[in-house]
Amino acid sequence: MNISTHCGGFCQTNGYLVETEEGAVAIDAPEGMFQFCKQKSVKPTGLLLTHQHFDHVEDAALFDHDDVPIYASEPCRPDLQLDDVLRAWGLAKQIEQFTVDHILTTTGSNLVLAGVEFELRAVPGHSPDSFVFHVALFQKLFGGDTLFADGGIGRTDFPHGDHDLLIHSIREQLLSLPDDTEVLPGHGPPTTIGQEIVKNPYLA
Ligand SMILES: [Zn+2]
Prior knowledge:
CATH architecture: 4-Layer Sandwich
Strand content: 25-35%
Mean pLDDT: 95
Shape: globular
Bound molecules: zinc ion
Largest sheet: 6 strands, mixed
């Protein structure tokens, strides 16, 4: 399994491309993610969204138009994309809407795409639709905007944000993973569960 990172857009958001001998999976769609895949001549078998905040879905419609199935925990919803916040910021940019082909749940079996088994965990708090994707075999966690390197956590001052719920989600769903699990977050460099247990002031 090879993972490459594309960081793009106004919020410097990470998208990850997971490649195996059986295919590829894109995780989140910041601005430029579609072109990043194109440049590698890779068409993912699926696009997984950790959540629908605008900076994680800017390129989602491009994948949709290219018939890449989209996986998310909710149907496409402008309120989850923070359309009010974008308007308040005076950002003319509109997020092009897309179709969520598969709704993620925690009650079904693990999701297997391109030969990679993703365990799905719901982690509401930063946003109500936040999920993380755990690849146990490779000890990787695609963490979205939950836990960041060097003591950060997802912000909760946006609409639908809930700080206490986020802390609860991190404790239950992330800190229960093995210490050497590498967290690949939605912003900034990777970290590990073990490092954040020691360093993260929010989890003290
Ligand atoms: Zn977010």
